[in-house]
C-alpha cells in the first residue's frame, strides 16, 4: 500500500513538472512578444480550400436544368461543360473571359506538411529495406574467414560510420547521381541505405557473435551446411537479440531522413521550411513538424515493444 502511495506521488510530481515546463515556454514566448496563431498552420496539414474551375476562353454562359454550366466559346471551339460544382459564380447569359472563375468544388486533401510526412515515411521504409540487406551481407562478410571479404566489410563500415551523413548525401547526389543519372529521391534512398546499412552491419555482427559457438557446431554435426546453419539456427536467434538496437536504428533513420531536404526532396523538414516561408508562423510550424516526427517514432517504439513482448512469451 505504501509503495502505491509513493508511486502516485511521483506521478503527480511528473505532471506538475510538465505543467511547469509548459508555463515556462509560455512565459518565454511572452517575453519575446510573440503571438501564437496555431490556426495558420491548419491549412498546411488538412487543405480544405475549394478547387476553382476557370474558363478556358472567351464566351457566353448557359445554365442547364440539371445544374450543368456550359460555356459557348466565341471562336467556335467545343463548349466547356462543368457538371459538378458546389458554388457557381456566373449566371445565364453572362459574358466570361479566359481565366475567369466559373465555379468551385469543396474538398479536403492532405496539406503540404502531411504530404511531406508521407514522403518521409516512404524514404524511411524503402531505405530500411535496402539497409537491412546491405547490413546483413556486410555483417556476414565481417565474420567471414576470408580476409578479402572481411577487409572490404571493415573498410565499408569504418568509412561510412566515420563520415557525416550530410557529406555522404552530397557525394551520392552530385557525384554518383551525375555518373548514373540518379534522381533526387533515388539518391536520397541510396545515401540513407548505405549509411544505415553500416550501423545495421555492426548490430547484426554483434548479435551473431553473441550466439554460443556450440550452436553452429551442433548444427553442422547434424549435417547442415554452413549457409543452412546460419539461416535456420544462428540468424533467427541473432535477430531476436538485436531487435532493440535495430529499432533504435530505425528511429534514427526516420530522423536522419530530414537531411535529404538539402537536395530538394520535399520531405517533412523541407515542407516545414516552405510553410515557414509562406506563413511566417515559425514557432508553430516547427513545433508541428516536431510533433509529426514524434508521432512516427513513438508509433515505432510502441510497435517494437509489442514485438519484444511476443518474442519473450514465445521462449
From TrEMBL:
It is found in: Cell inner membrane; Cell membrane. The keyword Cell membrane applies. The chain crosses the membrane at residues 117-141, 153-176, 285-304. It comes from the Bacteria. Residues 117-304 form the ABC transmembrane type-1 domain. It is a multi-pass membrane protein. The keyword Glycosyltransferase does not apply. Keywords: Amino-acid transport, Cell membrane, Membrane, Transmembrane, Transmembrane helix, Transport. Belongs to the binding-protein-dependent transport system permease family. HisMQ subfamily. Part of the binding-protein-dependent transport system for glutamine; probably responsible for the translocation of the substrate across the membrane. This is Amino acid ABC transporter permease. The lineage of its organism: Bacteria, Pseudomonadati, Pseudomonadota, Gammaproteobacteria, Vibrionales.
Amino acid at each position: 500500500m505504501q509503495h502505491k502511495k509513493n508511486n502516485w506521488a511521483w506521478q503527480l510530481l511528473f505532471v506538475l513538472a510538465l505543467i511547469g515546463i509548459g508555463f515556462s515556454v509560455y512565459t518565454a514566448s511572452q517575453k519575446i512578444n510573440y503571438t501564437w496563431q496555431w490556426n495558420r498552420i491548419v491549412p498546411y496539414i488538412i487543405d480544405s480550400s475549394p478547387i476553382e474551375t476557370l474558363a478556358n476562353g472567351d464566351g457566353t454562359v448557359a445554365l442547364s436544368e440539371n445544374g450543368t454550366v456550359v460555356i459557348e466559346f466565341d471562336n467556335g471551339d467545343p463548349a466547356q461543360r462543368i457538371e459538378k460544382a458546389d458554388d457557381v459564380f456566373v449566371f445565364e447569359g453572362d459574358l466570361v473571359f479566359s481565366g475567369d472563375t466559373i465555379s468551385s468544388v469543396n474538398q479536403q486533401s492532405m496539406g503540404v506538411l502531411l504530404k511531406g510526412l508521407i514522403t518521409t515515411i516512404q524514404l524511411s521504409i524503402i531505405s530500411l529495406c535496402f539497409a537491412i540487406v546491405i547490413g546483413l551481407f556486410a555483417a556476414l562478410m565481417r565474420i567471414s574467414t576470408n580476409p578479402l571479404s572481411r577487409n572490404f566489410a571493415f573498410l565499408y563500415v569504418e568509412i561510412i560510420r566515420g563520415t557525416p551523413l550530410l557529406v555522404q548525401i552530397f557525394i551520392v547526389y552530385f557525384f554518383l547521381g551525375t555518373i548514373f543519372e540518379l534522381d533526387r529521391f533515388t539518391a536520397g534512398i541510396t545515401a540513407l541505405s548505405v549509411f544505415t546499412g553500416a550501423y545495421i552491419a555492426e548490430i547484426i555482427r554483434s548479435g551473431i557473435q553473441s550466439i554460443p559457438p556450440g550452436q553452429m557446431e551442433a548444427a553442422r554435426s547434424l549435417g547442415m551446411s554452413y549457409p543452412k546453419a546460419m539461416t535456420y539456427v544462428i540468424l533467427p536467434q541473432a535477430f531476436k537479440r538485436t531487435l532493440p538496437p535495430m529499432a533504435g536504428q530505425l528511429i534514427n533513420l526516420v530522423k536522419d531522413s530530414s537531411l535529404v531536404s538539402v537536395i530538394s526532396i520535399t520531405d517533412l523538414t523541407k515542407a516545414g521550411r516552405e510553410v515557414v516561408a509562406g506563413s511566417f508562423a515559425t514557432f508553430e510550424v516547427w513545433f508541428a513538424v516536431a510533433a509529426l516526427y514524434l508521432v512516427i517514432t513513438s508509433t515505432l517504439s510502441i510497435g517494437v515493444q509489442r514485438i519484444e513482448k511476443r518474442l519473450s512469451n514465445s521462449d
